[in-house]
Amino acid sequence: MNEFIDNLPPMDLMRSERMTFVQLIIPVESAHRAISYLGELGLVQFRDLNAEKSPFQRTFVNQVKRCAEMSRKLRFFKDQISKASLLSSVHPVLQPDIELEDLEIQLAEHEHELIEMNSNSEKLRQSYNELLEFKMVVQKAGGFLISSNNHAVSEDRELDENIFSNDGYVESASLLEQEMRPGRSDQSGLRFISGIICKSKVLRFERMLFRATRGNMLFNQAPADEQIMDPLSTEMVEKTVFVVFFSGGQAKTKILKICEAFGANCYPVPEDITKQRQIAREVSSRLSELEVTLDAGIQHRNKALSSVGFHLAQWMGMVRREKAVYDTLNMLNFDVTKKCLVGEGWCPIFAKAQIQEALQRATFDSNSQVGIIFHAMDAVESPPTYFRTNCFTNAYQEIVDAYGVARYQEANPAVYTVITFPFLFAVMFGDWGHGICLLLGALVLIARQSKLSGQKLGSFMEMLFGGRYVILLMSLFSIYCGLIYNEFFSVPFHIFGESAYKCRDATCNDAHTVGLVKYQDTYPFGVDPSWRGSRTELPFLNSLKMKMSILLGVVQMNLGIILSYFNSHFFGTSIDIRYQFVPQMIFLNSLFGYLSLLIVIKWCTGSQADLYHVMIYMFLSPTEDLGENQLFWGQRPLQIILLLLALIAVPWMLFPKPFILKRLHTERFQGRTYGMLGTSDMDLEVEPDSARQHHEDFNFSEVFVHQMIHSIEFVLGAVSNTASYLRLWALSLAHSELSTVFYEKVLLLSWGYLSFDFVPYWIPFYLDYIDNLAIRLVGLAVFSFATAFILLMMETLSAFLHALRLHWVEFQNKFYHGDGYKFKPFSFAALTEDED
Fold first, then answer.
1. pLDDT average, residue stretch 741-754
2. Cβ partners under 8 Å of residue 377, min gap 6
3. Model confidence at 554, in pLDDT bands (50, 70, 90)?
4. Cβ–Cβ < 8 Å for 199, 239
5. Distance of CA 501 to the CA centre of its chain
6. Which segments of the protein form a coiled coil according to its record (predicted)?
7. Which of 507, 613, 652, 671 could potentially form a cystine with 583 if both were Cys, beta carbons 3.0 to 4.6 Å apart?
């Protein structure tokens, strides 16, 4: 048997790649290029030899800081490009190779230029906003002053028509630079302050003014005609022009302080309409000049950003790689001569030739006179786990890794999960109509994978896209199980021929009460469509799906125990085979394997035996005569033998292994020769670059308690895990009944709501037709919504989670330790934007 297993060809994904612990001695002049080439290869996981040092105590900390500073500048450029609504080039023209120092100088120049342009633009925008606010204050406050001073209507119209236009402008001295002279309001003791404030602050501003002046003021306001851009946030802000009339010097001081506290900008407005006219003309002239200057500045800034954005992706990738190289170099140590860097790490054995070729190329390209030394070493710790996956198998490997990463070269459940996971999902989701809907969704994701793989997706879409092949197999198995259940949106079809049953008479009135009569051979594939709607439909489907769930559960649990045998054989632990694998197989199959045998015999013979009675009295009264529940000759003595074997298997699992381990541990310290536990005879001949297992001190009490817990867990788990597989029956039944309810109580009820037999004339017929059509459309919409969101989304998620639990708990706990750690090589391909 062992020779047969040893001669089996190796299976991809069954066991992780063989790893070796290596040491690299790299001359300083070729270190950077060597690490870069290894990053492109992506097959070496370095070990941090400076773990006790802080990041600021490492050798290449200054280079890492420089790269971090360049990353900051590049992120600044990216933010500026996005704020300017410019698109950086997705496929930039590659520049010739540029040194990091030259790139650092270029980035500093671009940053200085952009900061200066932004500063000038903010100053110009601030001046433009102030002039625009001044213009609106003159416009609105002038109206308040004119009405207060009883100016003529003609002068008011003249102000609207001429003040804010450039027609007939006459050169005169600038009034903006002259000091405002007190007008008639000052002579009469009534003064005013005009300005502009954010619209959201007006109510609080007015209330504060009223309290500060004790009501001795008059507050006028008017909304500004234009929104003003905030130079910092670049958002448009609504503002309100106000004029506050008051009396006294102290009131003026209070009002100005309140304006300053609320961020209101105050502007002096003369009472003379002629001065208002001249100020407005000057403001309009300056605004037009500033608009031209601002547009020219924005164009120049966008041109500079476009030139940066053309190479932004290339620069970010270069800086990201350089930072990763120096971070990796910081994990290396100098030798005693300070002329070489020493690194250690893990790599797959199959990649040794590729790594050596990359190191030789690095030595040649760096013109180093000393080559790089690359050799294998022995290691104490367990190697990392590395599976070579593709886009199809990666999703299933991630499902397994979510439970725990496989121990080094432990049997990988993902090999079987590829088939068993979508199949168990389909057992709970079996409906070939719903399966076709899932299949269409999976095909869309697969057809657009080249486009979607390059896009940044949301968390939900990224999860769907990553599991597109899982959805594909789930849909195909759902179609298969749906054909077995004969359900298409809960509707049965005569796909594989006519039904084997017919009614007792032509009317079929008693079909749902008395039942049907079998008149020909059994339906060739799946459930006979005549079961749907019959009086025995539910008992028949319950019995079928419940027994099928037990059979599937026992088969998968046996597969898990068999995989534990392959693990024990691979690692050479024959004690686990004798005292763990064998009693576990005996215990599980003496009880539930026997139950599965009874189910198959009952199906084949058509017996009416009560399996509940058989299994219960197998424990309560094993010697009692079975009577009509006997399925085959010799069943009673077989049950007694199986029951005794199950009872013997429990102490077989519990006691021998701890005492044998104790004896082996004692013999080791007495100097006797024996095979060390956890090793095989092949370990003595294993090549020197393989990892050695680390053996901890033996503690008998801990080993015995651990074995007792393991034995109790298996005995109880054999019962609970078998019962757990009944979720296949429960969810399949729930999915079928939900689908039936939506079909019969929503779709059929709405489409059969009205009848046209009673309509005597065409007008009532037309009205009833319109009503019936609306009801049908509403029923169809409700049915579609329920199918899409409840049956295709919620039920899919529910079946997915239950299939996940069956694999993680019921299947993998029979053989899978899951206490390893992933192989994470230094690779440029694995770098993301988050590491900038």
1. 78
2. 21, 22, 23, 344, 689
3. very high
4. yes
5. 51
6. 100-127
7. 652
3-class SS at 192? strand
What is d(CA 282, CA 115) in angstroms, rounded to the nearest whole number? Answer: 31
What the block records as the tokens of 457 is 């997706």
Distances (CA, A) of 8 to 11, 406, 566, 572, 703: 9, 22, 12, 16, 34
Q: Look at the block and give the residue holding tokens 């007015």.
A: 206
Rg of the chain taking only CA atoms, in angstroms: 42
Structure tokens at 117: 């342009």
The residue written with tokens 């601002």 in the block is: 294
**pLDDT score recorded for residue 757:** 44
Give 744's DSSP letter.
I
DSSP H/E element including 244: strand 239-246
Give the C-alpha separation, 115 to 112, whole Å.
5
Contact 121, 294 (CB under 8 A): yes
Residue 835: per-residue pLDDT: 59
Q: The tokens of 235 are what?
A: 């958002």
Q: Which residues contact 51 (CB under 8 A, 6 or more apart)?
A: none
Answer whether residue 411 shows pLDDT above 50. yes
Residue carrying the six token digits 């290449």: 60
**Most distant CA pair in the chain: distance in Å?**
127
pLDDT of residue 415: 93
822 secondary structure, DSSP code: B
Query: CA-to-CA distance for 570 and 401, rounded, in angstroms?
Result: 21
Which DSSP helix (H) or strand (E) runs through 228?
Answer: strand 228-229
Tens-digit pLDDT profile for residues 659-718:
999 888 888 776 544 444 444 444 433 444 444 444 457 788 899 999 999 999 999 999
| 805 close to 431: Cβ distance less than 8 angstroms | no
Amino acid identity of residue 663, one-letter, is R
Per-residue tokens: 708 = 């007792």
Looking at residue 531, the DSSP 8-state letter turns out to be: G
Alpha helices in 310-388 (DSSP H): 312-329, 352-365
C-alpha distances in angstroms, 103 versus 208, 306, 309, 403?
Answer: 56, 17, 14, 45
Statement: residue 586 has pLDDT above 90: yes
d(C-alpha 587, C-alpha 644), whole Å? 10
| pTM of the predicted structure, to 2 decimals | 0.78
d(CA 756, CA 690): 84
382 secondary structure, DSSP code: P
196: β partners: 241, 265
Residue type, 360: Q
The whole-angstrom separation of Cα 481 and Cα 586 is: 32
Dihedral sign (CA 110, 115, 117, 118): positive
Beta bridge partners of 220: 243
- Which segment of 295-304, 501-510, 598-607, 758-767 scores lowest on mean pLDDT? 758-767
CB atoms < 10 A from the CB of 9, how many?
4
Cα end-to-end distance, the chain, whole Å: 55
Q: 3-state class of 674 per DSSP?
A: coil
Q: What's the CA gap between 748 and 740, in Å, rounded?
A: 10
| CA dihedral sign of residues 787, 788, 789, 790 | positive
Distances (CA, A) of 182 to 85, 333, 411, 813: 49, 80, 95, 93
Q: Which of 527, 442, 433, 430 is nearest to 480 (CA)?
A: 430
| Predicted local distance difference test score (pLDDT) of residue 9 | 55
Type of residue numbered 36: S
For 413, the token pair is 């459940």
d(CA 293, CA 376): 68
User: Token pair for residue 429?
Assistant: 């989701």
